[in-house]
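Let's sit down with a protein and look at its sequence and fold side by side. We need material for that, and I hope you will provide a protein of your own picking. Once you have written the record down, we can walk along the chain together.

***
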Amino acid sequence: MPEVLLIVTPALITFLVGRSYTVPSDVRRNDERIINRDEDLGTWIADNRRLVRRDFLRIWAAEARRKDGPDYSVSQCQKVKNEVLRRYRDELRDSERVVRDVWLAEQLPHRLWRRIIRRPVPELMAPIERAHTIAEWETSAEDALKAAEELRATAEQRRAEAGKPPLRPLRLAEVV
């Protein structure tokens, strides 16, 4: 029996020392992985914000060139926002998976090390930092139509004072 302990004990100590040696670098690597994915998500949101604005300007310019029929720009803009929200949902899901994978990959030694250095697993900050952009995308077509109607009322009044013809009516299209 003592011979077995003499063989097993050094092997166990070697294993534990080797395992504990890699824990700090594992934690740093995992933190960096989450931080990089968070930066990617923030960049994705900023890039898509510019693309959505460009699409809105294209839609508004096309509707401004039309002379007859109702103005469907609100519905077309809502379609763009719905598409970017679907893509954002997928990007956010991928980012959350990275955080969850880190949680699942880190075992007791990692958690003890995090407790010792008082550094928890990083959280995704991009959705919080870019909340105003996401809130813009989440506004409904009806809300946008109400805001557009208020702006149009002022524009109509100014056009009437200048002796110009009225603007085309805004409509929400069922299929655009």
